[in-house]
């Protein structure tokens, strides 16, 4: 294995791990008190409480981004 190939193969897992850690941090912020308090209330969107809609969409976004990060293949 050439040195360039070895460096690429070493870089890829750490890059994926860095993205996953960043996604965890974003998910943590999205699903914690300061942002959740913005959506707490009696407001409805499409007949659904805004807080529930926000939680569902944020969680779905985190799952979609996790799938996208994990499915990306190593490029040569």
How is this fold's topology laid out?
Blueprint: H1 3-30, H2 33-39, E1 44-45, E2 48-49, H3 50-71
Antiparallel strand pairs: 1-2
SSE string, helices as H and strands as E: HHEEH
So what's the oligomer here?
single chain
Helix content percent band: over 70%
Per the principal axes of the C-alpha atoms, what is the gross shape? elongated
Strand content: 5-15%
Derived from helix and strand composition plus strand pairing, the structural class reads: mainly alpha
* First-residue to last-residue Cα separation: 13 Å
- Tally of individual helices: 3
Explain what this protein looks like in three dimensions.
The protein has 76 residues and is mainly alpha-helical. The chain has one domain (3-71). 75% of the residues lie in helices and 5% in strands. The chain has three helices and two strands; from the N terminus they run ααββα. The chain has helices at residues 3-30, 33-39, 50-71; strands at residues 44-45, 48-49. Strands 1-2 form a two-stranded antiparallel ribbon. It is elongated, with a radius of gyration of 18 Å. The relative contact order is 0.14.
Essential attributes:
single chain; 76 residues; mainly alpha; two-stranded antiparallel ribbon; 3 helices
């Amino acid at each position: 294995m050439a040195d360039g190939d070895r460096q690429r193969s070493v870089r890829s897992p750490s890059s994926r791990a860095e993205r996953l850690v960043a996604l965890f941090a974003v998910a943590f912020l999205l699903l914690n008190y300061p942002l959740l308090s913005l959506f707490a209330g009696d407001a409805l969107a499409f007949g659904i409480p805004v807080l529930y809609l926000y939680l569902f969409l944020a969680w779905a976004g985190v799952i979609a981004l996790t799938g996208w990060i994990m499915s990306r293949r190593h490029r040569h």
